[in-house]
Amino acid sequence: MNQRVAVPLPKAYLLLNHGPTVLVSSAHGGRRNVMAAAWNMALDFNPPKVAVVIDKATLTRELVEASGEFVLNVPSREQAALTLAVGTKSGREIDKFSKDGAGSVCAPGNPLARREVESRVCRDSGQATAASMVGAPLIEGCLAWLECRVIPEPHIQQTYDLFLGEVIAAWADPAVFSNGRWHFPDAARRSIHYQAGGSFFATGDAFEV
Amino acid sequence: MNQRVAVPLPKAYLLLNHGPTVLVSSAHGGRRNVMAAAWNMALDFNPPKVAVVIDKATLTRELVEASGEFVLNVPSREQAALTLAVGTKSGREIDKFSKDGAGSVCAPGNPLARREVESRVCRDSGQATAASMVGAPLIEGCLAWLECRVIPEPHIQQTYDLFLGEVIAAWADPAVFSNGRWHFPDAARRSIHYQAGGSFFATGDAFEV
Description:
Chain A is α+β, with helices and mostly antiparallel strands. Chain A has helices at 59-67, 80-88, 113-116, 120-123, 154-160; strands at residues 5-6, 22-28, 31-37, 40-44, 49-53, 69-74, 128-129, 138-139, 144-151, 162-172, 177-178, 181-182, 192-196, 199-208. Helices cover 16% and strands 35% of the residues of chain A. In chain A, strands 1, 2, 3, 4, 5, 6, 9 and 10 form an 8-stranded antiparallel β-sheet that branches. The first copy, chain A, has a two-stranded antiparallel ribbon with strand order 7-8. In chain A, strand 2 and strand 3 form a beta hairpin. Chain A is globular. Strand 14 (199-208) of chain A pairs antiparallel with strand 14 (199-208) of chain B.
């Protein structure tokens, strides 16, 4: 696990304010999963809340509804291939955390694995780490992590696939986020913004007005 | 008005997918307003839907609730000062579209105006243009525009300041978005991502995985 430092809850919204694509991790009943979500946003400052869209067809949906918890992980540019892969393959077909499973995104035989073997998730032996407040894991190599408890709103969950969560713990790699500001050190360790069809933008230059 | 071309509705989500900060414009009963919103996201593909947070204290909230309509305008880097200004000052205090009003963001005497006189909204004589389907205006100089009709969800509007909208028309400057992809030509004409305290990120390099 790369280094992580607690982010004070009133500053947790800053981890999502600039609109990065996130990985949603989840766990329930001995199963765990991770998917990509470009459709996420902060919803409140303090207590911090978030909103994220989780499609009915996903295993993530099942695990989030059963556990009432999820983690939003902010991936780095070097995890873009992983982000695409976990956003493409369903956890119903593959164990995304397995290094050896035939369908794993980390397995060399998998068409997606060509990219995945480059990713930190597959390089590291421990691809995920226990969170502090929720059962969902923290994904290795990310820039920041928001541990969330679902705020039950059955109508909008069912009608729009829209989930609201309260952030109950937040973490960031101090090399990229400290004192309430992102400060990306290089081209690789910066957040990403999904466009479509395997195309991303990196978070660009910071500037003040 | 810079050039704008209709974006097919099933591709409208692409205008927000990478998480830019937007300007929310609104109008009702002869009043109009514009505010900044980092907390926005796409919510569905087709028919396209969006979600955006609109605080109870804002004039925008009053106008959006009264009209049932809003426009999400995607500002460019050269509009960052404008974005900060309209996100700082309330439409209850100033007419943000006025060139001469004592409190206008465009007025030279206003503390915010120092930045604003640089902005396209204040340079151009017509700072806003009529939309095609809604009463809310399209803000000059932006990169893209999503005309939205509120999907009434009183409970989440009241509880979370969360508004859902169906996109009923979408537009983009073809110099920056065409065939379903953003292609920013230079440092100025690209989207922006608000951090905090007057600090933004520009949308950075595009890359494929």
